[in-house]
Amino acid sequence: MKVKKAIVPAAGLGTRFLPATKSVPKELLPIVDTPTIQYIVEEVHQAGIETVVLVTGKGKTGIVDHFDLNSELQAKLESEGKYDLARLLNEASGLVKIVSTRQQSPRGLGHAVLCAKDIVGDEPFAVLLGDDLVDAEVPCTKQMIDVYNKYGKSVVALMKVSDEDISKFGCAAGAELEPGVLDLNKMVEKPALEEAPSRYAIVGRYILTPKIFEILERQTPGKGGEIQLTDAMARLMKEEGFVGYLFKGDRYDAGDKFGFIQANIAYALKMPEIKDRLLEYMKSLVTSKL
Predict the structure, then answer these.
(1) CB of 30 within 8 A of CB of 76?
(2) Which terminus of the chain has a smaller tally of CB atoms within 10 A, N or C?
(3) Would you state the pLDDT for residue 189?
(4) Which pLDDT score, from 0 to 100, does residue 241 have?
C-alpha cells in the first residue's frame, strides 16, 4: 500500500524561542523568508504524499491559516504588479490537502501521532517533526518511502552523533542489511551514554504502519510522564520488524537556537541574490572577532 498521508505534530509550546513564540507558533518562524512548516509540507509534496495532518494545540491556528488562500492580499499584490510575490503567496496553498486535529494537552509525541488515527486510517503513513529540516537533493521522505517499499517494514531516519549528544535523542541499533540500512533490534529513548546501544540517533522522519496506533492506545507513559513514540516503535519492532535508514542530506534542528541560525545561514547561501553579500559579511565577522 502506498504512503499517501503524513502527520506533522505541531502542538509544542516552543518555549526555547520565547518571547518570539508567545504569540507566533514556532513552526511559523522563518528560515530566511519561508516558515519551517512550509519546508516540511514541500518535502512531503515532493515525495508524492497527498494529505498532511497537522496536529496542533492552543494558539496554533496560524499554522493552518498559513496554508489557506488569501484572496484579498493576492488581489492587492496583483493590482500593484507584484506578480512574483502573488505567486509565492499561494504556492503553499495548493501543495497538498491540509487537515488539522487538536492535541488537547501536551502528552508527548506518541500521543500526538495517536491524535491523527481516525484521519490516517488503516494505511502506512509518514511522520515529520515540524522543526526538523533536512536539506537533500532527493527529499528525505522520498528516500524513506523507497526503503519502505523495498523492505515492507516501518522505517526511521538515523544519523550518527557524538558521545556527548546521544543522550539528547532516541537511539537505535541493528545489523546492516545494505550500506546505510539497518535491520533494527534495539531502540531506546534518550539513553545515558553508557546505556546507548549505538551512536545512531533517531531524527524527525518516520514511515510507520498502522499497527503503531494499536500499540500507542495501550501504552503507558514513559520518560517525562509522556507517551513516547520511541517506546511504541520498540514494541512495533518486535511485532513486525523495523528498518533504520541513514538518510542522505543535511539536517538542521530548527527548534534549537543554534540549529535555527545554522539553517538560516545554510538556506540563505542557496539564494543567489544574497549569497555573495552574506559570505562577505561572514568573512568580515570572522576577521573582526579573531
Answers:
(1) no
(2) C
(3) 86
(4) 94
**pLDDT by residue (tens digit) across 23-79?**
888 899 999 989 999 999 999 999 999 999 999 888 778 888 888 767 777 777 777
pLDDT at residue 224 in the model: 66
pLDDT under 70: residue ranges of the chain:
69, 82-83, 86, 88, 222-224, 290
Domain boundaries, the chain: 5-289
Q: Crossing angle of helices 257-268/272-289, nearest 10°? A: 130
Q: CATH classification of 5-289, choosing from 3.30.930.10, 3.90.550.10, 3.20.20.60, 3.40.1280.10?
A: 3.90.550.10
Residues in the chain: 290
How far is Cα 171 from Cα 148, in angstroms, rounded to an integer? 20
Compute the radius of gyration of the chain from its Cα atoms: 20
The pTM of the full predicted model, rounded to 2 decimals, is: 0.90
Give CB contacts under 8 A, 24+ apart, made by 26-29: 26/130, 26/131, 26/255, 27/60, 27/63, 27/130, 27/131, 28/62, 28/63, 28/66, 29/254, 29/260
Tell me how far the alpha carbon of residue 276 is from its chain's centroid. 30
Phi/psi for 241 (5° steps) reads: 90, 160
